[in-house]
């Protein structure tokens, strides 16, 4: 395959895979925005890696993926070896390649950002794994010896799936329980298909079942089975419960008709897009209040909040035919939590961004007709080091709106049965776990002898959003992986 041309990055510009044309997206196409590289493009893009010797990309990736090494294998066309190497650190590489905010993580740290454009790490990761899986490659567990140990995993989101993957590789039977009928957690029912096609999770289920992972879906722990029963039947339990209590902005008027919380909006819409015609009448597990979606065609939609969820809402509203879609965010663009790539895509699809706007109230009689906002400027940093958004006196105005979607983020909502089993929580509702190295450094614990991601019940481990608070797929995958390492140490020494 020839040696690597060191200066390939000069001749070959950074290039992403082709995207669905704008007019189709605006016309309601829900297909995944980015296509897959062809073989030649994948080799060229992977070949742009300098192998700079100090792989900042790997350090910045929460999973510490062996990025330069699998880029080199991709350049050489050794796709199955590249896929095997990608799986050594990442239980869900095709998912992360699609949804990671690479501009803030691996690609944001690429040496080539120095004027040449980062290597398209995420797109190559997706290419390698999609192609290998399509060609029938599967993780090789032929040398794994069954240990006779069994672990129950509660939650089939990225944390739970990553934990199950690592347990299977250690010869431990993982049984994954989820209240939903499909695996993936937010990957299946929250993140829209234009970022992640549903077929990706179906394929991952096939891979995990091939590794011996068992799924018990449509089962809610605490309602259908108790944690005590799981502890009696299994050697340990992993909690990957997610974080679903949405942040209540306490805005006057938030009970008006056509004011929607973001996640039920995305879930209901996802069901309808995928042909579940009865979705409007079905409740969403975990949400007491059922919402029926208003028709957005020709309507003025205002989305409040600038995170990934907000970006998914604005781009869904575009595809649903809204006449005008506006995103109001209280800080400036540089401080937006949403990925810069998603903001650029939203802008291209016609979304208007109003930065430095603090919502004050939702207006209307029975149905919302506007949002009162005030302009803000950035002031002193808060406890987390982020500059506070301070209201500029006398700057109020009203945004006309037919539909308002509130996307202020999520907080952990731990079930009451945890404390009955000695699983302690932190003040903010996060499950308290033993500190570990890597991407989780903020939780300190002085309980000597505990294992990574072990809770205050020694046989119960936890990770993902229910431990960190709402965050990212890649950090949930990291915590599931590390918790599995802790479980393996406890059970196998
Ligand atoms: P989840 O994915 O929430 O999975 C938890 C699972 O546990 C669920 O399936 C739930 O049904 C199950 N469960 C909970 N309680 C029980 C119980 N008692 N019994 C049985 N099952 C139970 N991150 C990114 O990196 N990139 C993105 O582009 C991105 N976009 C996002 C868009 C939206 C709309 C949202 C809401 C989040 C987004 N995120 C994104 C964040 C990411 O999805 C989460 O950080 C990640 O899914 C957390 O993984 P988890 O496994 O901890 O929890
Ligand atoms: Fe980049 Fe995410 Fe892949 Fe890590 S897992 S290399 S951060 S895309």
Automatic annotation (TrEMBL):
Residues 150-480 form the FAD/NAD(P)-binding domain. GO terms for molecular function: glutamate synthase (NADH) activity; glutamate synthase (NADPH) activity. It comes from Lysobacter niastensis. Keywords: 4Fe-4S, Iron, Iron-sulfur, Metal-binding, Oxidoreductase. Pfam families: Fer4_20 (PF14691), Pyr_redox_2 (PF07992). Its EC number is 1.4.1.13, 1.4.1.14. Gene3D superfamilies: Alpha-helical ferredoxin (1.10.1060.10), FAD/NAD(P)-binding domain (3.50.50.60). It is an enzyme of class 1 (oxidoreductase). It comes from the Bacteria. This is Glutamate synthase (NADPH/NADH) small chain. Residues 30-136 form the Dihydroprymidine dehydrogenase domain.
